[in-house]
């Protein structure tokens, strides 16, 4: 009589599937990277959107839809399994590059970003959940560092590539052909090679009273009641608020100083590149040093970097500023996800990740709206200064309210 072997947890044990999911998350990041440089310039130069608030509607649509989809991704992953959600996300992403290539008006761009938000919410959330399932409690920081590094290095590489393609061949269609290739490859790998990981979470959970948590209880706990979870949620929201600002307004700000498209592309790519590569170290460091102070210091460093962007007026100054912004974000991004993994019980962890990512990616929408209104009223520098102040306040809230969550550091 054959017996079913229980899933084994650990990075080394599940290395092949883990690395496959890292590669797939790089493709997810590439889908986002195709827009980072080209779309703000497309809004201004092709569709002649003169108001910043109107130009940033694509980020508003993307952020709002991605935030909501993150929430459902966690719930659906618990209910139906991780792999079906991942495959569904790639199917939804297939039309995005084609809509951007053929868009005759700005409404098509908004529609493409609604689909992109759904794609990112389903695919990125699910790869995060699956990696947490596989590695177990000991190496979550490292796992999240590798996951987020892959995604944001791909954002940076694609942003750089699309900047050069746009300079050489125009804003359309060449830059978006990369996205079409990423979507096709991501769908193929997810369908044919990825294995389901929900059983790993069930094995880690065992039989405990936590399994009876309702989705409403998980939402309330993660958003408001539990100090570490709610602190992570507010810090995630503000982190992506300033990323929404950087995505939508930095290319336009740099263009006002008559920087070349190649230099704008370099600045736009350097920020996620530093963010991406540095997470290879910061995720692992959070396993060694703990979560709380890395998050606090990262938020404060982001605030300083944004202030330098607002005060700068040259390529060299902005080069330093966006590098510091990327480093500060790298200190925060994987560490916040590791915090959720530390505190949330395996039985409801996927839903907690979904709630956290609901708040975090809601920051894109808040950032686009706030930055657009402030920039229209008082100019881009005022918008950047305001977001810098909000980012500093978020870091201080984390310092005051959060406790250390790493299993070894909080004994």
From TrEMBL:
**What domain of life is recorded for the organism?**
Bacteria
Q: Which Gene3D superfamilies match?
A: MFS general substrate transporter like domains
Keyword set includes Transmembrane helix: yes
Extract the InterPro entries matched here: MFS, MFS_dom, MFS_trans_sf, MFS_Transporters, Sugar_transporter_CS
Q: What organism does this protein naturally occur in? A: Kribbella caucasensis
User: What GO molecular function annotation could you give as one example from this UniProt entry?
Assistant: transmembrane transporter activity
Supply one GO CC term from the record. plasma membrane
Membrane-crossing residues?
12-32, 52-73, 85-102, 108-129, 149-167, 173-194, 293-312, 318-337, 384-403
| Location in the cell | Cell membrane
How is this protein named in the record?
Answer: Putative MFS family arabinose efflux permease
Q: Which UniProt keywords apply?
A: Cell membrane, Membrane, Transmembrane, Transmembrane helix, Transport
Residues in domain Major facilitator superfamily (MFS) profile?
Answer: 9-406
What is the membrane topology noted in the UniProt record heading this document? Multi-pass membrane protein
